[in-house]
Amino acid sequence: MQMDGGQALLKALEYEGVEVVFGYPGGAILPVYDSVLDAGLRHVLVRHEQGAGHMASGYAHATGKPGVVMVTSGPAATNIVTPLADAYLDSVPMVAITGQVPYGLIGTDAFQETDTTGITMSITKHNYLVSDPNDIPQIVHEAFHIATHGRPGPVLIDLPKNITDAMNPDSAMTWKDPIPVDLPGFKPVLDGKPEDITAAVELMLQANRPVIYAGGGILKSRAAAELRALAEKLNIPVVTTLMARGALPDSHELNLGMPGMHGNYTAVMAMQESDLLIALGSRFDDRVTGRLDGFAPDAKVVHVDIDPAELNKIRAADVAIRGDAKNVITAMLDEIGSATSVDHTEWRSKLSGWQEVYPLAYEPAEPGGKLKPQMVLERLRDGSPEDTIVASGVGQHQMWASQYWKFDHAYTWLNSGGLGTMGYSIPAAIGAKAGMPDRTVWAVDGDGCFQMTCQELITAAVEKIPIKVALLNNSYLGMVRQWQEMFYDNRYSEVDLSGPVPDYIKLSEAMGCVAIRVEDPDEVEAAIEKANSINDRPVVVEFVTESEENVYPMVPGGKSNSEVVVPPFQEKMAARLEDER
Amino acid sequence: MKRSQLAETHTLAVLVENKAGVLARVAGLFARRGFNIESLAVAPTNETLSRITIVVDAESAPIDQIKKQLDKLINVVDIQELDGEHSALREMVLVRLDVEDESRVAEVEELVAGFSGSVIRVGGTQMMISLSSRPNDLDDFLGKLQPFGVQELQRTGAIAIPGIE
Question: What is the model's pTM?
Answer without folding.
Answer: 0.96
